[in-house]
From TrEMBL:
Domain of life: Bacteria
The protein, known as: Phospholipid/cholesterol/gamma-HCH transport system ATP-binding protein
Pfam families, A to Z: ABC_tran
Database matches in PROSITE patterns: ABC_TRANSPORTER_1 (PS00211), ABC_TRANSPORTER_2 (PS50893)
Keywords: ATP-binding, Nucleotide-binding, Transport
Length: 279
């Protein structure tokens, strides 16, 4: 499945940013994240190693996507520092653009443009940022589709795809600029168990074959943990756990057990009316 991605004339688009082999791709130091003056996450210390696959787990409304927003520079921390590729996340537009060209983002809703074919969707970032000739852009886009098993669907429109196919098409687009870091926001939402397994298996293949660093935000514990190297649990305004998936599953901490076992009773409080995590 990865053959077309790894061979042939396709070469990565490189944007040099200093980073040693021992530098964490993502590092957060004592980070506090707020919306409208209200703290969503506080005291966050987290490192994501180069080439690893990290699961960021937690109940709905706990701040998982907020953590991604800080990594991409969409949300500026009220306190602390976020580093990506060994450098603080830029505040200026030019610096942010340069950094984001090295980030692949797989959106929860896919974000595919309905009036473009699958191939045109995947080619869009290349047209916007690479400056390559049209023929090479098409070759690269086709290689990404082959990498996710969708070369035969290149001329289809998003409405003609199943949920799992649409998610893989969005993944191909996220990989268009050959980013060393891939951020996935709830990649299994709306997928059946088989499609979920295909997507997570594909992410692991890309992670291992390409040395791609992946951060996967999810509340699907069963499908996500087996393919990850690092597990992080976000709950009650902070990090409740940071370690290996095996250590997480073996934990007897009441908060972690409530989340892993899906119990309605425990330290993670929910509002009786909204069903969301209580502030």
């Amino acid at each position: 499945m990865l053959r077309g991605y790894l061979s042939g004339p396709v070469q990565p688009v490189e944007i040099p940013i200093p980073m040693t082999a021992t530098t964490a791709v993502v590092h957060l130091s004592n980070v506090r994240l707020e919306y409208g003056g209200r703290a969503v996450l506080r005291g966050i210390n987290l490192s994501v190693a180069k080439g690893s696959m990290t699961a960021v787990l937690g109940p709905s409304g706990s701040g998982k996507s907020t953590l991604l927003a800080a990594i991409t520079g969409e949300l500026v921390p009220a306190q602390g520092q976020v580093e990506v590729f060994g450098q603080p996340v830029p505040r200026d537009a030019r610096g942010l653009l340069a950094m984001r060209k090295r980030l692949g983002v797989l959106l929860q809703g896919n974000g595919l443009l309905t009036d473009l074919t699958v191939l045109e969707n995947v080619a869009l970032p290349l047209r916007a940022h690479s400056g390559l000739p049209a023929a090479e852009i098409q070759a690269r886009a086709l290689a990404k589709l082959e990498a996710v098993g969708l070369a035969a669907a290149a001329d289809r429109f998003p409405r003609e795809l199943s949920g799992g196919m649409a998610r893989r098409a969005a993944l191909a687009r996220a990989l268009a600029l050959d980013p060393p870091l891939l951020l996935c926001d709830e990649p299994l939402t709306g997928l059946d168990p088989i499609a979920s397994g295909v997507v997570m298996s594909l992410l692991r293949q890309l992670n291992q074959s390409l040395g791609l660093t992946c951060i996967v935000v999810s509340h699907h514990v069963r499908e996500t943990l087996p393919v990850c190297d690092q597990a992080v649990v976000v709950a009650n305004g902070g990090l409740a756990f940071d370690g290996t998936p095996e250590a997480l599953q073996a934990s007897q901490d009441p908060l972690l057990r409530q989340f892993l076992d899906g119990s309605p009773h425990g330290p993670i409080a929910f509002d009786d009316v909204t069903g969301q995590r209580a502030a």
